[in-house]
Specification:
flat; single chain; 61 residues; mainly alpha
Amino acid sequence: MWTIWKARNDVVFNKKTVASPVAIVYKTLMLVKTWRPLLKPKLKPLVDDMISLVSASAAAM
């Protein structure tokens, strides 16, 4: 949600355009990867699986 909000603010306030929706997906993945070390060890494999699935789906677009 944070990445979508930031992209929206760039469009509204900074007159920027979004290159593609996939760019927002990749920015979201980078944000998740940044926060991953702070997760509980039990959740890390789940997040890794989610990152892999979303990355593969985004690459197919």
